[in-house]
Structure prediction request, 150 residues.
Amino acid sequence: MIATSDSFPTTGILLDCGAIAHMFTNKQHFSMYVNSINEFVTVGGHNRIPVAGQGSVRFSTILPNGHLNITLHEVLHIPYLGANLISLGTLHYQGVSVKSLDDGLVLSQDGKELFRASLTGPTRTLYYVQYAPLRSGTAYLTSSPLSMHL
Prediction:
């Protein structure tokens, strides 16, 4: 389930159509965390990838008219994963709708835009979530189309 909350720094995040759950690689991304014992997943054809724990991940998304703080719950911590993944299937099951644009996707829930994912990279086949790695003591002022980072 998605909830708005305080922001939390993250590394790059990909929107994944095939992921069975939200999965992040580094424990520092979690705001709430519980260790897992004897839990495994299959990723990219590799069987029994260990799940170190699960919990909640917070980050701030960049929207055309500002930022929105998002919390993802029931996120798996998988240290051996190559990227942070947000499961599109999980979001869809939770009532998030997807709108396709020329340069990516817009995800919204109950008419409120949650985040955007841009189709970028050299092959233009991966959807990168537009987020702001906020740190304490950092301020952002955003006004479409200009932004200022203090």
